[in-house]
Amino acid sequence: MKTLAVIGCGLIGGSMALAWKKAGVVDQVVACDLDEEELDEALDMGVADSVTTSIKEAVTQADIIAVAVPVLAMGKVFSEVARYMRKDAIVTDVGSTRCTVIRKAREGLGDRFDRYAPCHPIAGGELPGVKHADADLFKNKAIIATPDIGMDPSVMRVIEEAWEKTGAVVQTMSPELHDDVFASVSHLPHVLAYALVDMIARESNAQIKLGMAGAGFRDFTRIASSSPVMWRDICLTNREAISQELQRYRHELDELQRAIDDSDSEYIEACFDNAMRNRRGLVFTRKAEKRTE
Amino acid sequence: MKTLAVIGCGLIGGSMALAWKKAGVVDQVVACDLDEEELDEALDMGVADSVTTSIKEAVTQADIIAVAVPVLAMGKVFSEVARYMRKDAIVTDVGSTRCTVIRKAREGLGDRFDRYAPCHPIAGGELPGVKHADADLFKNKAIIATPDIGMDPSVMRVIEEAWEKTGAVVQTMSPELHDDVFASVSHLPHVLAYALVDMIARESNAQIKLGMAGAGFRDFTRIASSSPVMWRDICLTNREAISQELQRYRHELDELQRAIDDSDSEYIEACFDNAMRNRRGLVFTRKAEKRTE
Q1: How many CA atoms are closer than 13 Å to the CA of B244, on its beta-carbon side?
Q2: In chain A, what residues touch B198 (CB-CB under 8 Å)?
Q3: Are A138 and A157 in the same domain?
Q4: Do B263 and A190 touch (CB under 8 A)?
Q5: What value of ipTM does the predicted structure carry?
Q6: At which of A139, A173, A207 does a domain end?
Q7: CA-CA-CA-CA dihedral for A93, A94, A98, A102, to nearest 10
Q8: What confidence tens digit (pLDDT) does each residue in A62-101 have?
C-alpha cells in the first residue's frame, strides 16, 4: 500500500496525483493545501483519497512526498516535511526553477536531503487549479531530472521510474543548465507575453485594440493567462538567468528599433529570416511540442 | 461574365480568388505573378482559370483587380494597373498597412483613384504560398475597410459586399486608427517573436535550448514562421506606429528588468496580474479570434 502525499494540490500537483495513481505507482493519495475549496474539489474529482490542511498529517503517512507549491513557498514546506517524514520516505518537487529550489531543499531537509530527488515536468496549462488537473498531462512530455551533490542516485531512480510509468520521458541535466535553458525558452517568453498585454491594457484605446486582436495575438499571449504568483516566483528564483536573457533581448530590440527607425531593410529582413528559418526548422521540437500539448 | 485579376498570387491572393469564385462574386480568375511556379500551382489547384506574368495582360480583361503583393511592391503595381485597367474596373488591395498603401495608390492610380477601395482581411497563416490557399480562409473573419478622401463610397460598397458574400464581417475605420491598432496587436508581436527566435538561435547553446522548447514557446513563436519579406515591408510601411509601440514596449521591459534585478515582487506580480486579468478577459475577442483561426 503505497501512499503519495501531494503538498500543494493545484494543476500540477493534482495532475501528478491522478497520473501516478493511474500508472499504479501509488495506491492512494493524500492532498495537502491551504485552500480548502481546492481540497474539496480534489476529493470530488477523485484526485485525492483524503485531504488535509496539515503538512504533518499528510507527511507522516506518506511513502513519497511531492512538493507542488509555488517555488518561493517551498523552503518553508521542506523544513515542515523534514520534521514529520518517515525515515524511508522520498521527497520530490515539481518546481520550474532548480538552483534556488535545490538550495532551499538542502537547507530545509537537512540530513534528509539524501532522500530528495527533484524532477521538473515540462508540462502545464495556462489555467491553474486542481479543476484543470489531467491524468494524461505528462504523457510523452519531458521530465528534467537535475541530480546534484548529496543526492542518492537510487532515490532519483525511484522518482524517474515513477514518471516513466506515467508515459513521460525523463532527461537529465545539471540544475544550472536547466535554469539557463528554461530562462530562454520558457521564463523569458512568459515575461514578454505578460509585458505586451499589460502595456496594451494600459493604453487609452486598449479596448479597441484588444477587440481587434487576431489569432497571432491569441497564440503569442496565451501564456499571459498563466498564474501571476507562480510566474512571479519563477522570476524571483531564477533571477540571474532571466535577468541575463532579458538584457540580451533588450539589446536585440534596441537594434531592431534602430533598424526600423532607419528603415534598415537589410537588417530587418536578415533578423526575420534567421528567426523564420530556425522556427520552421523546429521539426523535431515541434513533434515534441505536439506531444507536450 | 465577371473576371477577377489577382496581382500577386500567394496565400492571400490565392485564397481570395478561391473564396470570391466560390461565393459567386466572380466567374473567372486570372492570376498574375512573377513566380511561374506559383502560377503553375495556381492553375493545378484551380485557383486561377488563366495565368500570366504580365500585369497588362491580367488587367485589361478584369472587372475587379486585387493587388496582393508585399506592400512595398504595391506602388509600382498601382501605376501599371492604372495604365491598363478598363474605365469601369475596380481596384482593391489586401495590404496589412493602410496609410502608406493608400498614399501609394493615390500616386500610382492618379485619376483612377476614385475606382479604388482598400479592404484589409484580418486573416492569414504563417505558411506563405498559393499551395496553402483556402477558399474558407475569410469565413467569419474581419475585413477592415478604410475609406479615405477621394474614394467613391459606391465602389467601396461593391468590394465590401463581395467580401460579405465570402462569409467575412466588414468593419470600417480610418487608415490611421487601423495602422495604430494593428501596430499593437499584430505588427509588434511579430517583431517580438522574430526577435526572440533570432536571439536564441544566435546563442552558443541554441540547439539545446530550442530542443527543449515546449508548447508555450511553440505558440509564442508561431508567427516567427511568417514571411520575412512580407513583415519587413510591414515594418517599413507602418514604421511610425510600430516604432512608437516598440519604444513603449522597451520602456515596459526596462521597468521589468529593474523589478527582476531588485526582486521587486509587488511590481512583478502587479504587472503579471494586470496582464492575466486582461488576457483571460478576452472572451469576446477570443470568440472573434476563434473565428479568425
Answers
A1: 11
A2: 252, 271-272, 274-275, 278
A3: yes
A4: no
A5: 0.86
A6: A173
A7: -10
A8: 999 999 999 999 999 999 999 999 999 999 999 999 999 9
